[in-house]
Amino acid sequence: MRHTFAAATRHDTACKNGAMTDPFLWLEDVTAERSLDWVRERNARTLAEYTENAEFSALESRILDVLDTDDRIPYAGMRGEYLYNFWRDGDHKRGIWRRTTLEQYRTENPEWDVLLDVDALAEREDENWVWAGASVLRPEQSRALLSFSRGGADASVVREFDIEKREFVGGDHAFDVPEAKTSISWIDTDTVYVGTDFGEGSMTDSGYPRIAKRWHRGTPLTEAVTVFEGETTDVSVGASYDDTPGYERHFVGRSMDFYNSERYQLLPDGSKVRIDTPDDAGSSVYRDWLTIRPRTDWDVDGTVYPAGSLLAANYADFLAGSRELTPLFTPDEHTSLEQGTWTRNHLLLVRLSDVQTKLSVLTPNDTGWEEKPLDGVPELTASGIISTDPRTSDSFFVNSSGFTTPATLLYGTVGGPLEPVKQAPSFFDADGMSVAQHFAVSDDGTEIPYFVVRRDDVTGPCPTMLYGYGGFENSMVPGYSGSVGFAWLERGGAYVVANIRGGGEYGPSWHTQAVREGRHKAFEDFAAVARDLVARGITTSKQLGIQGGSNGGLLMGVMLTRYPELFGAIVCQVPLLDMKRYHLLLAGASWMAEYGDPDNPDDWKFISEYSPYQNTDATADYPPILVTTSTRDDRVHPGHARKMTALLEKQGHEVWYYENIEGGHGGAADNAQAAFKSALTFTFLWEMLTRP
């Protein structure tokens, strides 16, 4: 039964007579002293309640040991003769950027060439730098464009780095870009494509670049030449260069929203030709091939290719008007395409069959495409392609792990055997633990899969942590977590992951069913899983805790306000909660294809039915909730978490709050902060679900 509330007791922040009635709007002023004083007061209360004891300290320390251990797999990106890795541990809180050779990497203890120590950089410059990525110049690998954010925000500065000299280039000839949400990529040693904040009108409403420019070394950024412009209502605009030898090409494009885009090839005379795929299709150009993944059924001259298919066409012929397409993958009710990655001569595919992975190799030849299974991947694990270098080889890395199986990294070359090269350690005793997959029935009759992990000797209802996301076509596949193992499973708890609609577990349609006016389906799916867990005797409502972040934080807010009777406790992290104003805050405008436009009365009609901040009830019996966010989150505004907490406090509900001053949207800027955040989550849920 859906939980409903009387309209008279529902909180309302809508406009009435032209004035806002939101009493906590002031908390959206992120760094105002009044706001930060409010944050500090609540942080102190939460820390005093849950963290100032030996048990919490021991758990936090154990989680940090997992995050810092040198026995972790150093995942690396293949770039010609080198493999690049960014690494954090106890001695390198902010991390080091390093590289090695394949020969060295395959040894038990590789020799790493450290290119940059971010801790030393931050100390030297007295800045709170957090690593945000690197773009290495190919094929020379002599220069790199390094990105750093302050405190883990999405916005970053870009600085050119001389790899051979191990120093920043500096001066007027360097490709350095001030702090912004920047996109930048190499064309050649002296030229880049850049999109950034060029001044008034250069950014979209979502806060991303609206203009792509070509920037030549030695000229000011203000003199970079515009190659493409989008609309302010677009999400973003970008330009890129394909440096594949013999196939050098320039591309530009615009993303009108999260799921619709246009892409063009720039021709030598400066004109552009559109790659005329459906706006909502994903596409990729590699050498002679164009691959297309439509998100809705695509009728091509009377042949309908279903949503979630993968199609191939000769790229030159397609630009010339041919629509000869070869289906490489066709979904069914149980199977979807999770990943497609090129090596030099082959296409590697990862399928999900009822949320379990299967890998194969496709090879184009004179007669078409040949497909073979990729053998040697461990069974009962979730596997994915970690890295390839299609410019130089047919080699690849595959990572496999499961809920109770630590990750194994395998290396292979298409046509040869797969060789385990790295093995992550076990952080908890998985003997006597098992994983089961069940299906709950949602309100409309759809079967919703979910995984349950627990000790075999726990036969009755037990404290259970249920995790969910349900948005943006992100699939929740099995994966190993040492902290979940020793902080929850070893103690006798059950851990559950729900594969609700809004995700991508069954392809695009699994997602599109739950966007905009269909959003309620994701919420109904999650509630159905909660009820099924109780019906199967795995837990009770009092013992069932739930956790989710970002879009999953929205899910948690809806569970609190719509289904409070199903849960014993909730952890709501970096959440979206005020759906009346989400599109006005930071990157919120970029998500309107997912949720709808609150300023459109037709859209607000369905959004208003679930928006947590507008649907709290002072008379309802809510479970205790822990709300967490980050001051430095410049993707989902911390005002969502702050205002919801203030409102719940005013209404007399049990709400706990913690805001990390750093961390960005991930909530943590280093391993120590991540360990603290995890320990707080486990401690809160265990105490709430086991209290009398």
Automatic annotation (TrEMBL):
SUPFAM superfamilies: alpha/beta-Hydrolases, Peptidase/esterase 'gauge' domain
Domain Peptidase S9A N-terminal residue range list: 15-238
Keyword Protease: yes
The Peptidase S9 prolyl oligopeptidase catalytic domain, residue ranges: 486-689
Keywords: Hydrolase, Protease, Serine protease
Example of a GO MF term: oligopeptidase activity
Example of a GO cellular component annotation carried by this entry: cytosol
Pfam family, one: Peptidase_S9_N
Biological processes per GO annotation: proteolysis
Keyword Protease attached: yes
Annotated protein name in UniProt: Prolyl oligopeptidase family serine peptidase
UniProt organism field: Rhodococcus opacus (Nocardia opaca)
Lineage, opening ranks: Bacteria, Bacillati, Actinomycetota, Actinomycetes, Mycobacteriales
